[in-house]
Specification:
Restrct_endonuc-II-like, about 40% helix, alpha+beta, four-stranded mixed β-sheet, about 15% strand
């Protein structure tokens, strides 16, 4: 488990590169709300947009998640608690006036970047 990165994953780096190419500047691995122990992958503080790039296994992607065959009860509980925490994070940030964007690791980075850019455009208008 130590080899599993919590930041600077390949999908995250691809998305960040595309956003940077569009002239956008952002914070990396930041807590959008102080006191809330949640870290967003990419944060636009002024626009109040938080982007999470979720791994298919760790967050239970409906398209790609395959249950573990070893220690299955533990992993089912772990993935379920991750999903519940994600929903709680979305709710807490939305209540604080933030826009939350969740991207799956399997999504095309161009599509994800487009969603982020659209959210930023809406927040500034």
């Amino acid at each position: 488990m130590r080899a599993n990165r919590s930041r600077d994953t390949t999908p995250e780096l691809q998305l960040r590169a595309l956003l940077f190419e569009h002239g956008l500047r952002y914070r990396v691995s930041m807590q959008p709300i102080s006191g809330l122990r949640r870290t967003a992958d990419i944060v636009f503080p002024r626009a109040r947009v938080a982007v999470f790039v979720d791994g298919c296994y760790w967050h239970g992607c409906p398209e790609h998640y395959r249950p573990s065959t070893k220690n299955s009860e533990f992993w089912a509980t772990k993935i379920s608690s991750n999903r519940i925490r994600d929903e709680d994070t979305n709710r807490a940030l939305a209540e604080a006036g933030w826009t939350v964007i969740r991207c799956w690791e399997h999504e095309d980075a161009e599509v994800s970047a487009g969603r982020v850019i659209d959210a930023l455009d809406k927040s500034t208008s």
